[in-house]
Structures are given as structure tokens and as C-alpha cells.
Amino acid sequence: MTYSLGIDLGTTCTAAAVSDGTGTRIVRLGREATVSSAVFVAESGELITGDAAEREAVGQPLRASRAHKRRLADPNLLRIAGSVRSPTSLMAAQLRDVVDTVTRAQGRPPGVVVLTCPAVWGPYRREHFIQVPRLAGLRNVRVVTEPEAAAMHYSVERRLGDGEIVGVYDLGGGTFDATILRARPNGMEILGTPEGVEQLGGLDFDDALLAFVDGQLGGALSSMDTPLVDHARLRHAAREACRQAKEDLSTNAETVIRVESPDGTRHETAISRAKFNSLIKSHLDLTTESLKRAIGSAGLNPADLTGVLLAGGSSRIPFVEQIVSDAFGKPVRVGLHPKLTVAMGAAAIARLEANRPAIPARRVASPPPLVSLAATRSPVSSRSRTAVAEVRAPLSFPTPITSARGRGPAKRTIPSPAPATWSRSPLNRTGVLAAAALAAGVMLLVGVLIAVMVLNGS
């Protein structure tokens, strides 16, 4: 039995889910359901990804790259241990390893793969993201936005009614998306213009905690020289301690952050949930303002929403649900595993695509917002070198047009122009011959005039 695959290549972690006739389920990519999105560049040039990259980075922290998704489309390439890498190539290595892991677990490759990207990304970022499956040597890949995938999962899990309008609040590790969606029998319809903040997520909450600890220690952390291996290791350990504290505060009223300074001194800093909330409130205010703009772009008011769906790992922070509920006064829906919501929804969409009837071989437009890639699989190892695949299908995203409510983008299909044809009617041939004769006569007259002018000049 064939299966479809949904993959969420997140800024900090990556998740994958499969969908077939028995349902949709998460595939464990490592010790846990998700794996780190880190990439380690070995001395041989091999790219090691996921949890294995984190293990290698313990001894050689300067060879690891993290959060490179934030640098996608940045003209300045990444310099990692003397080598130059693009975020696209690092993400392609991640994607190859995820697909290989799932293929081994399922015993065969997937039929259709759906990837997700932030809705707030513009065409330039999206075009760079499309290169990721190309470089990974994959075929039958489609791309949808993360809020669409999240809403698809919720619609399956909780059965959104036809016509229900929901706001999707997607707060991940590196980006925030706000999108308004309307449930339809054949899928989710985007209303208005998606909003968001590209550089806002769990990483920024970690930074807020790190800055708090650094202030408590008189700048002991910020004074470290990152290019030094020992200092880089200590800074990463401090960041990990802050990340763990952030997660602990989702269930505990207070916790202790333990860090080490370069002189070997160990420090402990206590922090309460209330203090943590105060550190991230300004960030969360930006997210609610984004969702309000998305609602307004659809010509709606918060009262028109059935509820707000929370997605993304950072939405598990209790203060997030409180802030959203206070800002909009609507039911806030949280899944059992917000970190896995996008991957589960992507797998469900992939399953629908696999079951879609084949399109006859004629000129028709591809159904937006899916992006179709068809490429040849490279025989090169998925963990050593980047293989460039051939694109066999046009790449496009839906063109924004005015929606029925007068504002915001809606989906449309643009038919391909009909191919030019040559008319074989006698009338058409006669007209062409007459035009040719006239042109010849003009050329002859011009030649005679030039000859007369030459003779007069001599």
C-alpha cells in the first residue's frame, strides 16, 4: 500500500507524518517524535543532520549550524569551520535524511511529499525554498503554508463545519504566522492576507532568558569570545539551559537555570513563570497585532471568528493561550501536540493529493496553492553531497486577487494561453502572397533610387 508524507522543516526542529488508508500518524525521526534541525559539517565535507549533528557538535561546536532557516534567501552565505554553505543546501541535507529515515521505516518511498513553509514568506523566500527539494533530488513534492496544514489537521481532528472561519496562530521556533481560513468541503480557503513576524519564535524567548541570566551574572555570558571553542561550547550550553527552563516553566511555577562561566564557576539563577511572562510579553503583543491585521485584511472582525487555532511548539507556553484569549475573546483551540500539528496536516493534504484523479494530458493550470516538482533522484548519498535535480514542471504560487469581501487575496486559476496556429485557408495564403509581392516591389524601388543618387553624385 502506498503512503503520503508530510514534513515540517522547522527552524529549531523537524517533524514528519505519514498518511495512508489506515490514517495519519507521526513517524519518529530519532529518540523523540521530532529531531533537531541542526546540521554538522564534518571535516570530510559530509553534512550530518538531526540528533546526530547535535552529538557531534558537543565536541566541535564551531562546525554546527542552527536556525539557518532564518537565513534562507540571505545573499550572505554561511561560513562554517572554513567552508561556505547556503541555507538551501543545509535544508536539502535535512530533507534527504528525513525522507530516507521514513523510507526505511515504511519499507518503500512515499508516493507524494508535502512540505510546509511560513505563510508570511514572500515570493523571493518561497522561490529559494523550492530549491530545497530540487537539491534533495526528490520528485512529487508539493508546498503548502504552515497555517493551511495546521488547519487541515484540526479539521480532521475536531471536524470544522463547512463555512466556519478560524484564525490560525502559528508560533514556532523561528517564525510567527497569522492566517484567516474558512473551512470548505474540498479544503481550507485563505481569507485576506496572511500576516506574521519572520524573526519571532521560541528562539527569541530563549534569547530573552539568556539576556536575563547574563544580567544577573554581570555580563559573564556576553563577554565570552564565541570563536573560541571552549567559549562557544559554554554559550551553547547556557542557551540549552535557557531553552530547558522555558519548557519547565510551562508546567512549573518556577525553575533554576544553571550555567558555567569560562573560569569554571557554576552559577544558578532562579526564575518564576511570572518573570518569564514579563520577559516575552512584548514579543507576544506583536503576534496578536499581526492576527488583528490578518482579520482586518479579510474584511472581518474578531467576532466573526469561530475560534483561534494554536499551532507550533511555542504555542504550548501557557501565557500564549492567555494572551490570545484576552485579545480576541474567542475560544482558543489547542491540539494535543502543537509541535506536530503542521506535519500531521501536511500528511493529510498529501493523502488528498495522492487520491486526486489524474489530470488529462492537456493545457490546464495546476491547483493552487500547491507547488509541483518533478525531479530525477540522484544516486549520490543523501548525507555526503548535494545533488541538483532537474525541474520538469513550472513552479508558481497563487496570484493574489481581490476577494469576494473586497479585500485580501483569493485563489484563482490562470489558464495557459492557447498555442499559436497557422491558418491553412486559401484566403490566408492569398493575403500572405500579396504582402510578399508588395514588399518585393518596395525593395526594388528603393534600389533604383539609391542607384540614381550614386550616378548624380559622380
From TrEMBL:
Q: Which InterPro entries match?
A: ATPase_NBD (IPR043129), Heat_shock_70_CS (IPR018181), Hsp_70_fam (IPR013126)
Q: Which chain regions cross the lipid bilayer?
A: 432-455
Record flagged with keyword Manganese: no
One matching Pfam family, short form? HSP70
Chain segments carrying region Disordered = 399-422
Q: Name one GO molecular function term.
A: ATP-dependent protein folding chaperone
Keywords from UniProt, A to Z, are: ATP-binding, Chaperone, Membrane, Nucleotide-binding, Stress response, Transmembrane, Transmembrane helix
Task: Please give the family membership noted in the entry.
Answer: Belongs to the heat shock protein 70 family.
Q: What is this protein called?
A: Hsp70 protein
